[in-house]
Structures are given as C-alpha cells and as structure tokens.
Amino acid sequence: MVPINSTHRNSQDTRLIDALAAGNSSTRLKAALAIGTRPAPGFVDVLVERCAIEPDFFVRDMLTWALTRYPSEITVSKLRAELRSRRPQARSQALHTLSKIGDKNAWPAITRSLLRDSDDEVARSAWRAAVVLAPEGEREWLAGELATQWGRGDRDVRLSLSRALVALGDVIEPILRAAMASDDPTVRAHASATRRLLHDPDAGFDLAVDEARRVVALGPDRKEETAC
Q1: Which long-range contacts (CB under 8 A, 24 or more apart) does 141-149 make?
Q2: What is the per-residue burial (b if ≥16 Cβ within 10 Å, else e) of 204-214?
Q3: Per-residue DSSP letters for 34-45?
Q4: CB neighbours of 144 closer than 8 A, spacing ≥ 6?
Q5: Which of 59, 98, 162, 204 could tie 194 with a disulfide, CB 3.0–4.6 Å?
C-alpha cells in the first residue's frame, strides 16, 4: 500500500488506511466515506491503489466518489497512469472514475486499445468514459470506433454499447445504416435494436433485440409482418 506523506500522516490517517484494507467490507466502505467526506492531502494514492484490488462493488463506488472530492488536477494524472496497468480492474475502475470526474483533459487517454480491450468490463467502462469525455469534434470518430464492437459479448455488454452509441445522438445514423446492411445477422440485430433505442429511449432493450431478430429472420421484404 502506498504510504501517506509523513508530513500529513497522523494516527487517524493511519486508522483510515488500515480500515481500507480491513476484511469486513462495511469497515472499508465507512473508511472510504470518511476520506471522501473530509478529503485531506495524501490519500489519493491510497484510494487509487485500493480501486485496483477492491473486491466489493459498493466499496469501489465509494472509492470513486471519494476521488471525485479531490481537485481533478491531482487525481486525473494518477488515474490516467492506471489505464496502463496490467490489472483489468485497475483500468476499468480508473475509466469509471474519470467518467465521474468529467475532466475533458482526460480524453486523450481514452485510446483505441482501451475501447477494444479484450476484457469486457474494461471495454464497457471505456465506452462510457469516452462518451462523457469526447469533445464535439471527436464524436463522429468515436461512433465509428464503437461500431467495430457490434455483436460483442453477452446481453449486458451489447446494451452498454448501444447506450454509448445512443448517447452520441444523430451522429450515429450513418453507422446504424451501415451495420443494418451487414452480412452478419448478429450485427444487423444489434444495430436495429440500437436504432430503436435511439428513436424510442423508453423502449426496452430486450424487446428491441427480440423485434430486431424477428425482422432479420424474416428478411426486409417481410418486415411489416412483425407488426401483425
């Protein structure tokens, strides 16, 4: 564990650091909450390091919240460094935290390799972060990059991709048209479901996928039969 700078370290700091590594998840959660409630110099490295190994989802979310309480000038550079980690969780949680901080200066760190990461959780986190951080002039490029992932993974992965694309708005229309003309029925169904979500945000993803699969199975000439 990264030690706190000795000039700021005291018994309370030490107890909080120890509590972040406690066996009980409730103790770790309370420690992260305490640090975020009163952010003090020297805890950022400890929080970032803990994000990489924390097994509990709720504690990880509290660690992210605590990091958002610090100035982005302090946190962003440390989180960007985590994106090069060999630990998938370190990359995923750093991306998640960057999306919550929302500092556009982090955009250059969202690389093609992260958007295509072989780990599904890292890729999903990268898609969400990219949508938040991408400047206006990069959104078309981002849509094209996300389109390389059509049909990837299970239901949750595909829903994450669809949501990321829908968040980009009308810029994805050419991408959708191209995918819906694909020779791959899985790509066509995924793109069709995404298009429905774009135009009807209240539509359920599973229903949209089911309808898209029926359309793909019937073929374009019998599309209207699905409405009967």
Answers
A1: 142/168, 143/168, 143/171, 143/172, 143/175, 144/175, 145/112, 145/115, 145/116, 146/115, 146/175, 147/175, 147/178, 147/179, 148/116, 149/115, 149/116, 149/123
A2: ebeebbebbbe
A3: HHHHS--TT-HH
A4: 175
A5: 162
Within 10 angstroms of residue 79's Cβ, the number of other Cβ atoms is 25
From 122, 130, 120, 184, select the one nearest 158 (Cα to Cα).
Answer: 120
More confident call, 150 vs 205? 150
Query: What is the model's pTM?
Result: 0.84
Which amino acid is located at 35 in the chain?
I
Burial classification of residue 67, based on how many CB atoms lie within 10 Å of its CB (0-12 exposed, 13-18 middle, 19 or more buried) = buried
Residue 29, exposed/middle/buried by CB under 10 A (0-12, 13-18, 19+)? buried
Q: How many CA atoms lie within 13 A of 58 on its CB side?
A: 9
Side chain identity at residue 221, one-letter code: D
Q: In the numeric block, which tokens belong to residue 85?
A: 């980690």
Distance, CA of 36 to CA of 47 (rounded, Å): 10
What is the 8-class DSSP label of residue 69?
T
In tens, the pLDDT along 182-225 reads: 999 999 999 999 998 898 877 666 655 565 566 555 554 444 44
